[in-house]
Amino acid sequence: MSFDDEWSQIRSEATEMRLNSLPPEAGSGGGASDYKVTSAELKAIGNEAQELFHWFERDAFHAGAQTGTASKILDGDGFLTGSAMWTMWDTWRDQAETLLSACAHIHNHLEDTVISHVNHEEVLVTNFSISTIDKHFN
């Protein structure tokens, strides 16, 4: 049997494995899995998160200086709107920074996942060929 045939067989057996080792129950949603994500899809999602990060980073804070100036002027003139405007800006900034952090985390995690998967596949292909192991024992 060639390496490619063995590798295909091993991969198909692995996709039939259930993580919880329990048989599927009627109505439980168990059974054959149709969930599959490729490295290209993960990269695309990561790239979208990175693009959102750059777009949002550029556009989310452009009104900060003007908002600060306006809130100080309104506050100085005795309007309560000034401090409310500053509170709104502070809340917006915190939420925007949280979104930026989440986008960066998603991008970095998916990039690491793709790289890790590629490296893992390379190790498996290189080190675990049944044909190669059998050759040493015959």
Give a structural overview.
The protein is mostly helical. The protein contains five helices and no strands. The two termini are 15 Å apart. 4% of the residues are buried. The mean pLDDT is 79.
Give a quick precis of the structure.
With 138 residues, the chain is mainly alpha-helical. It contains 5 helices and no strands.
What distinguishing features does this structure have?
mainly alpha, 138 residues, single chain
Helix-strand layout with pairing:
Layout: H1 3-15, H2 39-59, H3 64-76, H4 80-127, H5 130-137
Classify the beta-strand content into a percent band: under 5%
**How widely separated are the two ends?**
15 Å
The geometry reads as rod-shaped
Name the helicity range. over 70%
The low-confidence runs, each spanning 5 or more residues with pLDDT under 50, are none
Order of helices and strands: HHHHH
Average predicted confidence as pLDDT: 79
Q: Count of helices?
A: 5
Major sheet summary line: none
Rg result: 27 Å
Instruction: Tell me the total number of β-strands.
Output: 0
Would you tell me the structural class of the helices and strands? Answer: mainly alpha
